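Much of our argument rests on the idea that a fold can be written as discrete symbols. The amino acid sequence and the backbone structure tokens for this protein are reproduced below:

___
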Amino acid sequence: MIYFSYFTVSSILMFGAQKFLEKNIKSIGYIFSFLGILVLTILAARRSSYVGTDTLMYSNFFTEALNSSFKNYFHLLSGFGVEPGFILFNFLISKFTSSVIFYQGICSFFIEMMIWRGLIEFNKKSTLALEWIVFCLLFYGNTLNIMRQSIALAITFFAYALWRNKRNKYSILLILVAMTFHKSAVIVFIALITGTYLFTRKNSTQLNRSALLILMLTPFLGLIIEKINATGILGMKYLNYMNVASSQNINAFLIRLPLCILIIIDLYKNRKNENYTDMWLYLLTLQDLILLPIQNDSVVVGRLLLFFSISKIITYPQAINDITNNRILRCVLNILLIILLVIIFYLQVINNNNGGIYPYVSY
């Protein structure tokens, strides 16, 4: 299957990048990284406009920019509820190329570059390849369909990395930029408030109690999201999307549960350590699990919680990396993680055709 083939090649290149970066040979590591990104870019660029339920719409948005002034183009797309950042992004691309293939490729490259830049900023060189595999199998499919929100998600992921490194001003600036691509990024401020609250705890005891309090209050987050949507800030776009996977006989809770159990074990194991950033990212992943029943009933919650679930790119590999020092056991757990992610991708994309990206058809 073409997706698995491209994911494999891209991940092998990222593994090469990981090895060179571990040895601090950055130039070659960056070259391998670029090639790994390029593989996925080619896959996205050459897809037909009918691969992905929204792809044709975005192609039409782009072709409209080719023969329009910015004023007319902005007015046209604003009428469809498209955010100004994405309008400007499209218009600028149209000044350099008229090819839909190049347009799709540029969008994909930008998304993957933001994800990669975030991974580098998180500075977890030993798990770069595994993190990339998580991205490929859990989030790449969305980039072929919900392109605007995928760009906002990628920018947000980079912002999380900056927030983790105490570069708060740049992080907030990136989130504001993400909101100009998709209004749903407003939910990220809840994640940042949570992070700020945790970062101000004075010791591990306060940190653990605060984390438990946040998890206990998490079910109310769904109500907050629904209230935000009721104001009309987010528009009516979410009514156009359905969570196909949740309507099928896939127990998404059980699929997520094993990795969340590993996260809980890791948190318990390190309960006396003051790992503020790890706790914050783990909480985002656990909140995604807790809110899963609400996601299945609310398209709005499901789409907005993608900004929480993006943390899995870091937390899944990290939980395995921290849970044991035994290299053999760690390798086995990594393999099991990949197998689980492949099963999830198969069930969601191939079996249930989530997002309409299967079968893949190229130009």
About this structure: The radius of gyration is 20 Å. Residues 327-351 form the longest helix (25 residues).
